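Figure 2 data, in text form.
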Amino acid sequence: MPGLLHLGWPVHLWSQPVRSPLPTVEDPTLQRLLDKAVSATLSQFASAKLESNQLAVTVVDLTQGEPVRWASYRGQVPIYPASVVKLFYLVAAHQWLEDGRLTHTPELQRALRDMIVDSSNDATHYVVDLLTDTTSGPELPEAELDRWFEKRNAVNRYFASLGYTNINVNKKPWCEGPYGREAQSIRRHQPNRNWLTTDATARLLVEIVTGRAVSPARSAQMLELMRRDPFKPRPAGCEPDQATDFIGQAVPPGARLWSKAGWTSQVRHDAAYVELPGGGRAVLVIFTVGHSYERGIIGAVARPLLEALGTPRRAN
């Protein structure tokens, strides 16, 4: 896909210019567990015609500290992220605040909260406007549209400077749009959608969890917005619930969950950090395509992984 930032996570997982890299290692045991979970899920949902190219998964075991252990299945394949992209806008907003490029206001605080806690698209539109100094509106002459698009790429440039690649994070999420210059830009500029990989998303979430996203204090603020209660009664008659309808359905009693889900009529995703009652700590990112109404797929992948990560392993 032309225009994507190219991610080589297994080679240089954390290449931030200011913060020191986080040591990582591919874990064969974790990879076998992941491959087994994916294979079992594909078999379980064969009648629903779940294909191997409709899943992507990255799992990171944080239990033993550094180096962190990771494994992935199709982890570098760009996929439309739906609302998971809001995590990238959250981190960018905190970097802009840290640098003095944005001013902390009650309205921005409200928007960041609603963007993550409630997954509000309207709040996200406001945040993207602030991050990029652009607004939606009527169509523009081509030269002016190109200048608008250059500004809209501010968040892409930020993550490129941190070594993120194979992603595109410059579009607003819509329920029924886009219109005007937003639609005009989609027709003119490539890539014409947001794209993320599970590897890139897992990297970002690990950086938040370990205090490496902007600063420890800002990482803690971001993580707090992601806190979910997976054991609350499942809401009836509403959109999928971020706490109970995604990875949260697979967490064992006593676990704690922080997450950001995304869903449309075509995709169903979750990015989660889980603290298990036995002391295990894991980041798990699962993207699914073409089966957005199959609630159980994400749980089927997550459950055996969390069960295994909840069983203490000896350090190598």
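Caption note: The CA atoms of residues 31 and 136 lie 44 Å apart.
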